[in-house]
């Protein structure tokens, strides 16, 4: 997950949670009083505490004296986006649905993904190119008369995205 932090009047800054070292993840967990799996899930849900903790620790690499209390972004200044691997897993899972139902065509899946991608991915150009590549592959399979591929295993799909920039960490209700 990528946390995009856009300070008021500033340029967007991207922080990749995958780059955290174990010691840094432990600092985030202790600081925001959450276990690492909760933080990872919180990033998907755009939990403010999880995002703040990750960005703060990653910012400390360049500013070692930055205190947690000194980094207090506005609630609308942070959002999460899928990194390239997460986006590809999401797109692959969507294209596995092509042909399962006659209405689920490669074109429809690609159109839906192109509409969803701008608000969901960190690298939009990569996402567009990957969607177009997967659409071409799926259309070639359709033309060749191949049926849908077997359902992907649990590791092949991206986590469910539950976004709400206004949600606070106190909310534990899953959204749909």
What does the secondary structure layout of this molecule look like, with pairings?
Blueprint: E1 2-5, E2 13-16, H1 22-32, H2 36-44, H3 48-60, E3 78-81, H4 84-95, H5 106-116, H6 124-143
Helix pairs in contact: 1-3, 2-3, 4-6, 5-6
Overall radius of gyration: 18 Å
Q: Which structural class should the secondary elements be placed in?
A: mainly alpha
Instruction: Compute the number of helices.
Output: 6
Proportion of β residues?
5-15%
Lateral strand order in the biggest sheet: 2-1-3
Instruction: Give the uncertain stretches in residue-range form.
Output: 164-176
The description of the largest β-sheet is: 3 strands, antiparallel
Helix content bin: 40-55%
Whole-number mean pLDDT: 87
- The SSE string, one letter per element, is EEHHHEHHH
Shape assignment: elongated
Rounded to the nearest angstrom, the distance between the terminal CA atoms is: 20 Å
Tally the beta strands.
3
